[in-house]
Amino acid sequence: MNIPHRERARAFLAEAEMLNPGPWVQHSLFVAQAAEAIAEAHPHLDAETGYILGILHDIGRRAGVTNLRHIIDGYTFLHALGFEDAAQISMTHSFPVRDIRVVNGQWDCSPEELQFIEAYLAQVEFSTYDRLLQLCDALALPSGFCLIEKRLVDVALRHGVHEHTLARWRGYFAVQAELEAAIGASIYSLLPGVIENTFAPMQVDPKTM
Ligand SMILES: [Fe+2]
Q1: 11: CA distance to ligand 1 center in Å?
Q2: Number of structural domains, the chain?
Q3: Which of 49, 147, 156, 163 is the most exposed place for a label (fewest CB within 10 A)?
Q4: Where are the beta strands (DSSP E) in the chain?
Q5: pLDDT tens-digit series, residues 12-24
Q6: Residue 180 domain flag
Q7: What distances in angstroms separate CA 110 from CA 116, 129, 145, one per listed residue?
Q8: How far is the CA of 138 from the centre of ligand 1 (A)?
């Protein structure tokens, strides 16, 4: 795998936090912890690789407060350094379904960049690490691990739904089923604090009710 070592990945995250501080950093640390734990239980994955890919999956947020363009910013950053496998995760982690229409959030990149992302997705072969990071991104809040269903509903309440929302949800459950079949257990059995974090008292913005 063409990825940096753990310490360098952590240094990239620390640098990115200085450039653009925010809850995305804690989210990334929980994604890394989840990817490490699930990879450890998986017959074909390496825990250290899972951790490093988790640390770096949102590194494009170093470029500032952006929406979906963080995926191409992360790709460009890691690709320029030669870390092609980490760059791939930056591009694929938002696509449990390989379709640029099946996303949450806004495309805030140029038409040329969007074309590049579309072409990249059309040719890339999803590895089990791509699937792992898609899953972990959906279950890690800045405060810890969470039932995927709760996170999906929370996002829908905040940002609304569209004609592809159910396809996206089904995509996440397909990834979960794939990984659970491989590890022979519930992913949640590997995530400390998931029950407490999922069932913590609700904080709902009255505007969304
Ligand atoms: Fe993320």
Answers
A1: 18
A2: 1
A3: 163
A4: 140-141, 144-145
A5: 999 999 999 999 9
A6: yes
A7: 10, 28, 33
A8: 8
